[in-house]
Amino acid sequence: MTKTLRVGMIGCGFMGKAHSNAWRQVNHFFPELPAQVQLTAICGREAAAVERARSLFGWARAETDWRTVVAAPDIDIVDIGTGNDTHCEMALAALAAGKAVLCEKPLARNLAEARRMLAAARRSGAVHMVCHNYRRIPAVALARQMIQAGELGGAIRHFHARYAQDWLVNPNFPRTWRLQKHLAGSGAHGDINAHIIDLGRYLVGEIKEVCGMMETFIKERPLAEPGTVPPQAAAGGRKGKVTVDDAVSWIGRFANGAMANLEATRFGLGRKNHITFEINGDKGSLYFDFEDMNRLKFYSANSAAGRKGFTDIIVTDREAHPYMRRWWPPGHLLGYEHTFVHTFADFIQAVADRAPVHPTFLDGARCMAVMEAVEESSAGRKWVRVPAVK
Amino acid sequence: MTKTLRVGMIGCGFMGKAHSNAWRQVNHFFPELPAQVQLTAICGREAAAVERARSLFGWARAETDWRTVVAAPDIDIVDIGTGNDTHCEMALAALAAGKAVLCEKPLARNLAEARRMLAAARRSGAVHMVCHNYRRIPAVALARQMIQAGELGGAIRHFHARYAQDWLVNPNFPRTWRLQKHLAGSGAHGDINAHIIDLGRYLVGEIKEVCGMMETFIKERPLAEPGTVPPQAAAGGRKGKVTVDDAVSWIGRFANGAMANLEATRFGLGRKNHITFEINGDKGSLYFDFEDMNRLKFYSANSAAGRKGFTDIIVTDREAHPYMRRWWPPGHLLGYEHTFVHTFADFIQAVADRAPVHPTFLDGARCMAVMEAVEESSAGRKWVRVPAVK
Amino acid sequence: MTKTLRVGMIGCGFMGKAHSNAWRQVNHFFPELPAQVQLTAICGREAAAVERARSLFGWARAETDWRTVVAAPDIDIVDIGTGNDTHCEMALAALAAGKAVLCEKPLARNLAEARRMLAAARRSGAVHMVCHNYRRIPAVALARQMIQAGELGGAIRHFHARYAQDWLVNPNFPRTWRLQKHLAGSGAHGDINAHIIDLGRYLVGEIKEVCGMMETFIKERPLAEPGTVPPQAAAGGRKGKVTVDDAVSWIGRFANGAMANLEATRFGLGRKNHITFEINGDKGSLYFDFEDMNRLKFYSANSAAGRKGFTDIIVTDREAHPYMRRWWPPGHLLGYEHTFVHTFADFIQAVADRAPVHPTFLDGARCMAVMEAVEESSAGRKWVRVPAVK
Amino acid sequence: MTKTLRVGMIGCGFMGKAHSNAWRQVNHFFPELPAQVQLTAICGREAAAVERARSLFGWARAETDWRTVVAAPDIDIVDIGTGNDTHCEMALAALAAGKAVLCEKPLARNLAEARRMLAAARRSGAVHMVCHNYRRIPAVALARQMIQAGELGGAIRHFHARYAQDWLVNPNFPRTWRLQKHLAGSGAHGDINAHIIDLGRYLVGEIKEVCGMMETFIKERPLAEPGTVPPQAAAGGRKGKVTVDDAVSWIGRFANGAMANLEATRFGLGRKNHITFEINGDKGSLYFDFEDMNRLKFYSANSAAGRKGFTDIIVTDREAHPYMRRWWPPGHLLGYEHTFVHTFADFIQAVADRAPVHPTFLDGARCMAVMEAVEESSAGRKWVRVPAVK
Asked: Could you tell me the end-to-end alpha-carbon distance of chain D, in angstroms, rounded to an integer?
């Protein structure tokens, strides 16, 4: 019970804030965890910003060189919450140093990087996880339980998902790092399509082949003034090329025969963080919408005649729903940040147990394989088989 | 199969249109009815208007004196769809003439009238019905079946209903007949509260005692220009007193111990025909909203742990849902007017069988007894026991 | 006003019932139409069945040979509501006879047939329409008005639609004519995908290229006992091959640059007639769900800061919403069958005016061109350019 | 910036957990607060339990005598989260000791106690607040802003609210302290009706007169085994009397003429923490449901014709919505516990500024005056004027 796990967090932006909160909160709500978390070091490139983050988010010390964090003897866990172009290098170094590694999604910029990370993780024997936090929305975790228990029947027919945001609709929104391929890897694809691919894999199974299209609606945008939150256009009115996708839409097949239809967009005006999926099996269906994240809609063919319909389950039951006994009475909702607390709780348990914890780097690499297949498909205007990652 | 029932309809406004449609439609969708309806005569006060209605709504002849209709030997059914101040006199005459009578709700202006109508109906032995058409919304009929079958459990705890419209919010809406007590009897009370009282009686049981308040928010309105549709203010800017309620809100107790909470208003801005009710039993709950009238939400305490929630039943299943086998495939919705077709189908069957059909004049009178108790309660600022109507 | 249009209806099944109702109802609710409809003849293959339909649906005479109907001098309008394999031949004959033609969707079994029908229609100069009735759901007609008025902005980014039903989930549902290619042309594709393709074309514009997949989940089904409603398996337990698609999922591009993502399935367990679409423009978005067909959700980027969101418009306003002044007060809902009444009203007006009325056979043929491109794409596993239909 | 405020928290149950979390979180998300919170002491009656709470919730020391906490020189703020029977005594002592006081709702067991607390607070000059946390749900805070800004118009017509839970439906749920009048003061009334009364006062104004009924559906329940969470019946099967209400339903009038209709119940089967209210003004309406707490539905009469409807505002906009800039991007939801963080942030600011902060003890006492009036009304079956609290 008195074991301590000391965390070094790299990144102090949006994910730094969300992760820090989860590290701080997890022991307060998961009292039976076998280890106490210590927020040992947070790391960012700019000294002033990282010191602000340290103080605000509750870390013991601030660092500006991630190599120091990775090498520090008083760090057990390295949490990588930086831009996608840095994940691979950092993870390799952290794993080489014997640290447990939690890495934000997407695991890397491309499949080659992801494979290197997976190989390193296996070599090291360390606990590794990619932070697909939406798996641990209680409603999603419940969906998984239900599917595993056969409540949707023996055959899944459809996985139909859409992840829509709208923050790029305005053509004057500036070209931040997220809109440049060499920094972000991709656009809506890596940022949000990755999430629904992971949910599809988690809930339905492996994806076999894909055919997709990626679009960039606005080809040029004002250059961004560095360091502004929210992002502002730089003075002078110069523009730069957008080199990532604004939206991606694709169809595919799961290994088990289910049809896949997914779309991710930053141009879904009015949709803020609208992750919806519907899964149709031969005995049941599920529907989820993140903007109503405490609920899961479940249709069961087994209900009595005339009483069938989608049941609106408020997933807040302490006895019956995943993770809920840690929190509040029924009907007292959870929010976005709780998905990280749940993820980190399971991660801590795994680190303490030296046991694997999903989604592993294998999951991250397989997600990346699907993503790369979609990209190849879009570029080549053809169906592409998802490369195997073993 | 070849029996014919000849209808005389009194009234050619909104209800004339809705009833005419149902008379025309009913045999086309209820082929097994033992009688064919004939739209024999429609009656209104103004010759030109009634002739227009006759032609448009499909009646054989137009009349301007309701006594002619009531006395006509070629009329079997008298359908009263006129203003509330005329129901009693017309019904008495029609019953005396041996006609089957279908009367719009509220049955009368007051309980005394309603009692007279009930007595006359009993004396005559004719089939009589008050047109509380919302009982035969398939979702409501299903609710009734479920409650009767015990799906809500042995004890009902709450009937919580609201009927909100918003057509009086504008203070310049003119003072039509509906806003004058001597013509309408009451305002929101008789027009829409009557409907939810009837639903409460139909679904939960008799109401024992009540305590309510009635309000008239706008005390004076522009005089109405006669005959304008939609209503227009008369030139000259003169105003007249509003002598009926704009809204009524009340609490009460059912004989079976359930608590009643009802509200009816014409000032529910944004609500158009928003009839909602929730019924909470000790084993199940129901929720209904007329603006989504093809659905019934059902919560069952018997569902499996972790799978409980309100099930959104789309009440369009041909095999399992009341009235639905006459219409379209599942998911192909019905609308407002179908409630009249269902009502008239059951009425025709009853007339052919010389059998009672709910809601009878007894139901209409009991509804009126509740209404009168609410009025007395509001005037006297006290609880009032609902008078017995046997 | 006294002009008469005499209709001959071919087909007496589900569509026969829906169309007959609309022919009967249209003059009652659209009083200003310049012609009175007469239900002159209904035609079906089986004498007993068509006589039953004649009597039930209100037609003057029954016919068993469609050629008689098409040739009859007392018929002005031929309404084709039969199986897809007969549309072309019947329409050609009717047009040759100088009749106005209303044909159920999909216009034909394939593009070649559709082109022939279009050419014949143009040659004849007769008024012709394909019955994509969902265009005239008031909410859809409103969506069209809004888009035309620029309320969604200058650029449409996404048309994301799904049409899900679930009547084939049970593998023991028998192999009716709808599951055989030579009779139906295709499965979910022609039956329901056709509808959302038409909605996409109506609302967003022409579709340029497509890439899709079609699946048949259940390859064999019990043979159907002829003439059973609902369909029953024949005795003996023999099975037959299903030769049409159970589901189709596809992506594509509109000529105006919008992305298309559509899916149609008969395996969407729990979905009955679930036509949903979302359209995202750069100033507004729309969402529609047929199972809630009286509503349209509208997001406007022009709303005040902090007040933005999807507005749930109940499309029942007599003054402001298409077709609604013919019906009932606000909040009194319409249903499925009203879509046909609206369609036929516009058709009658057009026939009287000898004016074109959308969707014309050109629309039907263009819809068919998209459908055929999706089929070719699915068969060849490739992107396909939609053939031009001029 | 470096000021420190040291908190002593009395109570270590559900509210202890929720409050502790907020004290821990507030400085991390409200960086501009002028004081840092220290979780100095937590107090409970049982040494083992309070030590567990101390450790789990992050407090510096554990106490078992609340008088020690109240008197401690190193405590600036006393947070009272205990049973209702103790609020008065503790608050009086804390105020006498010069502490700022935050007290859970309902403020006291009755109006007399509440008046004493209010007088003491005024005498002391200390900052005092009653923890009606639901005022600071962002959607509720937005509702308040909108009403204050006149977006609902000059006249409010209706406040229609229901707070339904269902944890007492099972008659075998044991008789905990919450079901005994001498400990809890009342049942659903003080526990949840208090919340919607406070919301009514906050949003619409003072309530002038009331008429209500209170019911106890299950008069006896199994005795509770002490200390069990969730509560268990004691062995032996003995029962005890339930001396509080299970449900309360009432009508009333606001000073500004609006009609009030409220209901609070623990027998609303299927409803978990279902706080709903609708407010109808003459220019706008609002609807809120706590089980969908990140949203506010707003109908504006000012919207364009044909575009009116309830707008579903997702209240997560950093720029435009109360409290949201502290948290996550749009569409990333908040939960129940955030209401406390917002409340405490405003309280800390007020303590630092020595300024009043709503809801004050005056608000708490006025809420109690309404509650007591409802109780008197129910007991006497009559309308009761709400006593003035100045």
From this structure: 36
- A205 close to A211: Cβ distance less than 8 angstroms: no
- Number of Cβ within 10 Å of residue B238's Cβ equals 11
Alpha carbons A380 and B218: distance in angstroms, whole number? 69
- Any bridge partners for residue A38, and if so which? A6
What CA dihedral angle connects B318, B323, B327 and B332, to 10 degrees?
Answer: -70
User: Which amino acid is located at C286 in the chain?
Assistant: L
Residue with tokens 């801005």: B269
Token pair for residue D263? 């209901």
CB contact under 8 A, D217 and B155: yes
CA-based radius of gyration for chain A: 21
Encoded tokens for D336? 């129940």
Q: Is this structure's pTM higher than 0.95? A: yes
C308: nearest CB among D297, D300, D313: D313
Could you tell me which of C337, C8, C343, C281 has the C-alpha nearest to residue C150?
C281
Tokens 């064999």 belong to C220
What is the CB neighbour count within 10 angstroms for residue D355? Answer: 9
How many Cα neighbours within 13 Å face the side chain of B238? 7
Contact yes or no for D228/D177 (Cβ under 8 A): no
Give the whole-angstrom CA distance, residue C85 versus residue B2: 38
pLDDT tens readout for residues D79-88: 999 999 999 9
How high is the mean pLDDT in each 10-residue block of chain C (390 residues)?
A: 89 95 98 97 96 97 98 98 94 98 95 97 97 98 98 98 97 95 93 98 98 98 89 93 98 98 98 98 98 98 98 97 97 98 98 97 98 98 97
Tell me the DSSP string of B49-99: HHHHHHHHHT-SEEES-HHHHHH-TT-SEEEE-S-GGGHHHHHHHHHHTT-
Provide the 10 A C-beta neighbour count for residue B234: 17
**What residues of chain A have any CB closer than 8 angstroms to a CB in chain D?**
14, 18, 20-21, 24-25, 28, 31, 56-58, 165, 167, 230, 271-274, 290-294, 314, 316, 318, 327-338
Q: Which domains does chain B have, with CATH numbers?
A: 3-134 (3.40.50.720), 138-292+294-334 (3.30.360.10)
Question: Which residues in chain B have their CB less than 8 angstroms from residue A311's CB?
Answer: 303, 307-312
* Token couple for B186: 């009451």
Alpha helices in chain A (DSSP H): 14-29, 47-57, 66-71, 87-96, 111-124, 138-148, 181-184, 188, 194-203, 338-353, 361-380
